[in-house]
Amino acid sequence: MPAVPQNSACCSRRTMLSDLGMGFTGLALGALLADDGIAADNLSPAVAADTTHPPDGQPHHTARADSVIWIFLSGGYSHVETFDPKPALNKYAGLTFDKTPFENPVNSPLHRKRFRSVAAEEINVRDVYPVIYPMQVGWKPRGDSGIEMTDWWPHLAEQVDELCFVRNMWTTDNDHAAENQIHTGRHRLDEQQPSIGAWAHYGLGTLNENLPKFVVLGGPTRSDTRLSIDSLYLGPQYAGVPIALDPANPLPFGKRQPGQSLQQQQREYELIGRLNRLSAVEYPSDQKLLARIRAYELAFRMQAAVPSAIDFTHETQQTRQLYGLDQDNTKIAGERLLAARRLVEQGVRFVQVFPSPYGVWDSHQKLRDNHTRLCATVDLPVAGLIHDLRQRGLLDRTLVVFCTEFGRTPGLEQRSGGVDGRDHHPNGFTIWMAGAGLKRGFVHGATDELGYHALGAGHYVTDLHATTLHLLGLDNRRLHFPGRKRLEIDDGRVIHEVLA
Q1: Residue 309: pLDDT band by 50, 70, 90 thresholds?
Q2: Looking at the DSSP assignment, which residues form a beta bridge with residue 443?
């Protein structure tokens, strides 16, 4: 009988180590040491072969923020009726752009330079409606900083001196694939990139080994917006982990079966881990398999940590009211934002919050009714979050980002006989940030007098990404991945003007 070759999978050193293993605890320890950049030579063969793992998980420079709460309103809120009021819309209401004393924005070279429509340009009229539609709400200067905000944000207006507005954002997609673009930086016609949350996860070590680094609350809003939390070529282990705000069942994929004890489930996970590691010996480059190994190990630890993180029973009545948990119209957003505070408090790096369902801010018609109602659902909870972070001393180390996928047209949407709405508008819109490392009570950038174009160079969405990562201590241009070369626009540039 011929001798078995020394490199045979059945008796190789790799196979023996994988078969014997160190049990569930050993796998957990290996993953944690890998996250901390320690003892890389002693990792299991499968984990050691994971070429997607960052070198050390350490920041590139001194971080100003430990965590990010990224709040996204799906559908595109109107910038001119929220955070960038435009009196000229009222003064010239009913006139066409060419009847005002301003340059016709449709003829601006910025329009062709930045805008990219999937539909043929000759049939796309969605962002060029020429009849000016007046503002649907009042506005006034707020706080000591005197920043103008509309009357739909009475609670947030009380926090305006903590906020840092960027009023010259722009993007290129004029349809709702822009929901993915604001998170990935790529137009839907191009090869997609990992989301901003995935890059943060990829670049940094953990602050709490019992919780994911990247948590998602209320999303993704639909299957076709999965890209907004995806990690793509970084590997599935860096994607966002959606969590349900049900302490009894926050992780349906990890819930114990009826009658199953904790010890039985642990043995089940140990067996699954051993089987997965056996497979990993033969397929060391299978990123999905490596991610699955980590997922099972993390899922077991999360069963104790996650329910505690989202359990509000120990929050005071005052705190619950601060977030609007006692009111039907603010409860959903309030619960998600309170959970976000609790998660960053316990060391989660990046929490992506969808306080509203998919597309609800998309006010093609009845803008006044829609925005009046929708602003009331998030105004109190978001203001409560800023106040709560500040009073707990968390705002100095937490970055809050509040954004949407695009603004709304200065012109009246006239499709289908429209008389009271605005269409999608990627050419210029407003986001705001607050917290770690930022100027407070500050406005950077502007749109033109009609709110059409972001003036100057403006800021493409990846500038927001670069700024976020910079405050976390990461240089966006140094987050390289083997075999992948990103475009210049993918890296973006830090908005230094908003940094304290």
Answers
A1: confident
A2: 165
CATH classification of the domain holding 345: 3.40.720.10
More confident residue, 436 or 289: 436
Q: How many CA atoms lie within 13 A of 297 on its CB side?
A: 24
Count of H-run helices and E-run strands, the chain: 15, 13
Residues 35 and 72 placed together within one structural domain of the fold? no
Amino acid at 105: P
At residue 64, φ and ψ (nearest 5 deg) are -95, -25
Longest dimension (CA), the chain: 96
Q: Is residue 62 part of a domain?
A: no
pLDDT digits (tens, 9 = 90+) for 329-370: 999 999 999 999 999 999 999 999 999 999 999 999 999 999
**By the 8 A CB rule, do 457 and 428 touch?**
no
Tokens in use for 492? Answer: 């973006």
pLDDT digits (tens, 9 = 90+) for 105-152: 999 988 878 877 666 665 566 668 899 999 999 999 999 999 999 999
Rounded-to-integer distance, Cα 441 and Cα 160, Å: 6
Report if residue 341 sits inside a domain: yes
- Is there a domain that residue 53 lies in? no
Angle (deg, nearest 10), helices 287-309 and 331-345: 110
Using an 8 Å Cβ cutoff, are 428 and 454 in contact?
A: yes
Residue 431, strand partner residues: 166
Q: Which of 64, 346, 50, 305 is nearest to 202 (CA)?
A: 50
Given a cut of 90, is residue 388 above it in pLDDT?
yes
What is the CB neighbour count within 10 angstroms for residue 8?
10
Query: Same domain, yes or no, for 240 and 258?
Result: no
- Secondary structure of residue 278 in the 3-state scheme: helix
pLDDT at 116: 76
Q: What beta strand segments (E) does 312-469 contain?
A: 350-353, 398-404, 407-408, 424-425, 429-435, 442-444, 459-460
Nearest Cα residue to 70 out of 494, 470, 432? 432
